[in-house]
């Protein structure tokens, strides 16, 4: 006889974030102190002239998968330029989780899609926007239109990854009078492209993310896609006094 109820599944764990630290800036110079406790916030101490020297704490960066293909790699390269010894600690989160962790002092920087609004406690520095390209099966030749994409069905990132961008994409189809079935969802560009290659629909991806090589997928501009939004990302950080490495990094922001 079949059981009348199923066992309760355990709740999924929330992402583990670093513990909050003081809002005082951390000097880029070594800090002379007594014995340093081991832990993720500090590198292993070493002796210098008889004193124990603690290296700078890691820079804690939150990011979403949409930032993986352009802005996060550029940010990490610039960090190596301005502070070669700085050790970033990367945490993948949704944009809402990233902004909350920044407010709570659990992150130092966030690479997020431009939000509709943010706390006054945070600064949002816009990063260069990217156009959206269509990714569709290579066996589908010819011009690409919004109606053609809708007929194939869209594969999109979940709305939690970029709520405003997701909503504007749907609004662009509605404004063009194109009925769009509920999109399939995949979190990473590689998964989106794999679904497209498998004939599960077409996709809209930022230009740099869409350029990953995937057999059986072609990229194209949308002939009537002028109403589609561009993907706008931002560098988010708390409004507090910045230490010297962070100031040097922000001075390079136009080149990110």
The count of β-strands is 13
Biggest sheet: strands side by side, in what order?
Answer: 5-4-6-13-7
Proportion of helical residues:
10-25%
CATH class of the largest domain: Alpha Beta
CATH architecture of the largest domain: 3-Layer(aba) Sandwich
General description of the model:
With 256 residues, the chain is an alpha/beta fold. The protein folds into two domains: 105 residues, 3-Layer(aba) Sandwich (D-Maltodextrin-Binding Protein, domain 2); 89 residues, D-Maltodextrin-Binding Protein, domain 2 (3-Layer(aba) Sandwich). Helix content is 24%, strand content 22%. It is built from seven helices and 13 strands. The strands form three sheets. The chain has a five-stranded mixed sheet, sandwiched between helices. Strand 9, helix 4 and strand 10 form a beta-alpha-beta unit. It is elongated and about 55 Å long.
List the helices and strands and how they pair.
Elements: E1 31-33, E2 46-48, E3 51-54, E4 59-63, H1 71-82, E5 88-92, H2 95-103, E6 109-113, E7 122-126, E8 132-137, H3 146-152, E9 154-156, H4 163-175, E10 184-185, H5 189-197, E11 202-206, H6 207-210, E12 217-220, E13 233-238, H7 244-251
Parallel strand pairs: 4-5, 4-6, 9-10, 9-11
Antiparallel strand pairs: 1-3, 2-3, 6-13, 7-13, 8-11, 8-12
Fill in the keyword field for this structure.
2 domains, 256 residues, alpha/beta, five-stranded mixed beta sheet, single chain, elongated
């Amino acid at each position: 006889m079949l059981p009348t109820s199923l066992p309760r599944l355990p709740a999924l764990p929330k992402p583990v974030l670093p513990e909050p630290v003081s809002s005082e800036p951390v000097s880029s110079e070594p800090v002379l102190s007594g014995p340093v406790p081991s832990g993720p916030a500090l590198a292993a101490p070493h002796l210098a002239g008889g004193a124990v020297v603690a290296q700078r704490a890691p820079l804690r960066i939150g990011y979403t998968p949409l930032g993986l293909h352009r802005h996060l790699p550029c940010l990490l390269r610039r960090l190596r330029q301005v502070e070669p010894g700085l050790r970033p600690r990367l945490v993948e989160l949704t944009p809402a989780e990233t902004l909350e962790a920044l407010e709570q002092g659990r992150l130092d920087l966030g690479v997020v899609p431009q939000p509709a609004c943010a706390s006054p406690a945070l600064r949002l520095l816009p990063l260069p926007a990217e156009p959206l390209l269509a990714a569709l099966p290579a066996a589908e030749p010819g011009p690409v239109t919004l109606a053609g994409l809708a007929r194939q069905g869209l594969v999109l990132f979940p709305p939690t990854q970029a709520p405003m961008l997701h909503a504007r994409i749907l609004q662009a189809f509605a404004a063009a009078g194109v009925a769009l079935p509920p999109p399939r969802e995949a979190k990473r560009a590689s998964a989106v492209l794999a679904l497209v290659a498998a004939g599960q629909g077409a996709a809209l991806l930022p230009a740099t993310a869409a350029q990953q090589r995937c057999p059986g997928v072609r990229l194209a501009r949308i002939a009537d896609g002028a109403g589609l939004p561009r993907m706008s990302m931002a560098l988010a950080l708390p409004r507090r006094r910045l230490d010297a490495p962070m100031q040097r990094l922000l001075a390079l922001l136009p080149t990110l």
